[in-house]
Amino acid sequence: MVSFGAAPSAPLGTWPIRRRKERAARRLRLLQRVVREPQAHLELWYADSTRFELLPVASSMWRRRGARQWVKTPGQNVRVAVCGAIRFPSRQFLFTHQPKTATTALFLPLLAQLEQRARRTGRPIVLVLDNGVPFNSRLSQAALEAASPHVRPFRLPKYNSETLNWIEGFWGHLKQTYFSRMLADEREAFYPDALRILQRLRHPERIKSLALRSP
User: Pick from 91, 83, 132: which is nearest to 112 by CA?
Assistant: First the structure.
């Protein structure tokens, strides 16, 4: 029997996913309160990988009705793959890079930087990660086990990275602010120009100037 006008039932699997997201969100809020304390005994970092491209994705532009809009480009696309981590709430930023695609080879040196920092400060790091390939490969899992107890992974539930991973907003702001237009007139200049922007953002005061929303 079909009841017309009744509230639709949730798709199968929706409620378990929602409960996992709510549990993860509660735990993250607790960790955020802990690390805000001046004498916090640990640090909270959010990590993720992304890719910046020479040819921007045009989300909107003005053109005369019926006319085709041409965008001048410097040639074949160039991609810069980046694996980064940002500290909550101070916004310190670390990153590694390579051409084309983010892989485990990008995450391992970033993890080494975080482990070195934890050893130097004496404060263990809770590292928020999604289930992407760079963070979930066998090599990455073995490296995370070897980095314990200095670096402890906090795995986000599937399909919730965009809402729970603070660094996602950082990537989005960078792409809208710096990479939504043609960054370089020459193809060969894009990679070093992109790195120059990221290196400037390694200073927390530079990131504070961005309208980065707190989680």
Answer: 83
CA dist., res. 110 & res. 8, Å (int):
45
Q: Which helix (H) or strand (E) holds 162?
A: helix 161-164
| 170-194 per-position pLDDT tens digit | 898 888 877 766 667 788 888 998 9
Asked if 114 and 94 touch (Cβ cutoff 8 Å), the reply is yes
Collect all residues with Cβ–Cβ distance below 8 Å to 37 and sequence separation of at least 6: none
CB 49 within 8 A of CB 81: yes
Record the tokens describing residue 187, joined without a space.
């193809």
CA 57 from centre of chain: 19
157 CB-near residues (< 8 Å, 6+ apart): 17, 20, 21, 24, 164
Instruction: With beta carbons less than 8 A apart as the criterion, state whether 83 and 110 touch.
Output: yes
Q: CA-CA distance, 41 to 35, in Å (whole number)? A: 8
Nearest to 154 by CA among 43, 49, 67: 43
pTM value is 0.83
Which pLDDT tens digit goes with each residue over 105-151?
999 999 999 999 999 999 999 999 998 899 999 999 999 999 999 99
Q: How far is CA 29 from CA 26, 32, 88, 168, 185, in A?
A: 5, 5, 11, 17, 44
Instruction: Tell me how far apart the alpha carbons of residues 121 and 171 are, in angstroms, rounded to a whole number.
Output: 27
Residue 13's region, left for phi above 0, alpha for psi from -120 to 50, else beta, is left
Query: SS3 of 35, please?
Result: helix
